UniProtKB/TrEMBL annotation:
Keywords: Membrane, Transmembrane, Transmembrane helix. It comes from the Bacteria. This is DoxX family membrane protein. The chain crosses the membrane at residues 20-40, 52-70, 131-150, 156-173.
């Protein structure tokens, strides 16, 4: 008799056994390919570095934006509602507790969005890539810690984003080390680029800022609707952490 394995169905988790196995397999392939590359070509061509750096910058910026923009309209954590407020700690998973913590403060969600959108914007411009990578590393360190210790099933992906940010920052390690020692930091070598390339990064910057404004407007509208809906109802008190013991006041 042959044992039939269950089909691989999407679970919404990025930390399944299949994902970790695939990551380990890709790591082995990368090590073998890197060793072979080093054996046959000891020095990386200067033409390859901008291409690889550009791919990493695009991947990191896109990933940060995909999470950062939706925080301005509360699309990731949402806003607190009655059933969340009536749940006890014992009924909450670690991830659910984190989600309620974030949903409690719309302003903090916006701050988290800024922490992800800002480095993405800096990664679009050659002169600010290192600063963007450093800010992204700080942001993703915090995100990875939350995912690890609150059991959010995006640990593997957030670890990849942190690694990408560190690789981009490490490319400028000599200048960073000189800055840390208080020494003079050499300027970036100037490269002649077509005008379309020089100004092309500003178009997505403007579009991203416009996207932030649109998402923020939607978030404010949703927040205003919630405040209007709960005016004069017990939900208003619940949204502030209180519960009505009796609908009749005791001072009459």
């Amino acid at each position: 008799m042959h044992k039939s394995w269950p089909p691989l169905l999407p679970t919404g988790s990025g930390d399944t056994l299949f994902d970790w196995t695939l990551a380990a397999l890709l790591l082995v392939i990368a090590l073998v390919a890197g060793t072979a590359w080093t054996a046959f070509q000891r020095k990386v061509s200067s033409q390859h570095v901008p291409v690889l750096s550009g791919l990493l910058r695009f991947f990191l910026a896109y990933s940060l934006l995909s999470y950062g923009l939706i925080k301005f309209n509360f699309g990731q954590f949402g806003l607190l509602n009655d059933w969340q407020l009536t749940a006890t700690y014992g009924e909450s998973s670690p991830m659910g507790l984190l989600w309620r913590f974030m949903a409690t403060s719309p302003g903090y969600q916006w701050l988290a969005g800024v922490a992800e959108v800002l480095p993405a914007l800096l990664l679009l411009h050659r002169r600010t890539v290192t600063l963007g990578a450093l800010l992204a590393a700080v942001t993703m360190t915090n995100v990875l810690a939350l995912n690890l210790f609150f059991d959010v099933p995006v640990k593997l992906f957030s670890a990849h984003l942190l690694l990408t940010a560190l690789v981009l920052a490490a490319a400028d390690l000599p200048r960073l080390w000189a800055f840390a020692q208080g020494k003079a930091v050499a300027a970036l070598p100037s490269t002649l680029q077509p005008a379309l390339w020089r100004w092309g990064s500003w178009l997505p910057t403007v579009l991203i800022l416009a996207g932030v404004g649109i998402h923020a407007q939607r978030g404010l509208s949703e927040l205003a609707d919630q405040r209007t809906e709960t005016q004069g109802t017990p939900s208003l008190l619940k949204s502030r952490g209180f519960h009505l013991v009796s609908p009749k006041p005791f001072n009459r």
